[in-house]
Fold this sequence. Notes:
Helix 2 packs antiparallel against helix 11 and helix 3 packs parallel to helix 4. By secondary structure, this protein is α/β, with parallel strands linked by helices. The longest helix has 34 residues.
Amino acid sequence: MNRRDFLRRFPAMVSAVASAAVAPAVLLRAATAGAANRAAVVAAASDLKYALDAVAERYAAQGNPKPKLIFGSSGNFTRQIQQGAPFDLFLSADESYIAQLVASGLTRDAGVVYAVGRIGIAVPPGSPVQADRDLAGLRRALAAGKVKRFAIANPEHAPYGKRAQEALQYAGLWEAIQPYLLLGENIAQAMQFALSGGAQGGIIALSLAKAPPVAPRLGGFALIPEAWHTPLVQRMALLRAAHPEAERFYAYLQGNDARAILAQYGFVLP
């Protein structure tokens, strides 16, 4: 290359070198910004399916990253977290599961109670079971041989299933109904079973019964007395490695906007 060609091409060469040097820094800043604004990964009890979806929509509408919500049974989530599942925040339907994680050193602290849940008997349209608060309709249908399937969540790992078992035991129906039980992996699946038409009913969360996609499918619903089972005290906690965005969503869940939505879905607020 002669001097004249070199001088002619020199500005472009400088520009290319500068771009190559700057690009990694630009990419690093972009990656850092992306990490800072990433969505929180939230494990949530399935009784929160519709209520927490509504909370997350409101949160995102205010310019925040919409959290990634994963719904399931509290017992299963607890086991997954103990095995290293990368969640930021856990909303349990039973505070005893949070206590297990606290004892294992897997949470930031003891967390906070965010709601108290309620259960009720739900039946599909045309069911031979009448939905009433003292389960008399279920008792009559069982005695008449009209119950073939009755859904609850699995009591082994789903808090709403455990409370359903307690209520049925209180009513003196547990032994009689066991041959007909259809167990859902979580309370949302139990609700689907109860209203599918293949079952004559089930015990589900009030928060699901009040959800707009569910309410029109109900043939009947009645709350079961609180005294018939252990209270469903629901607690949430940040996990040890929680992302800062999870901290912001955790704080939002304790504010007036989120609490108002939870109340609309029938949760009792602490």
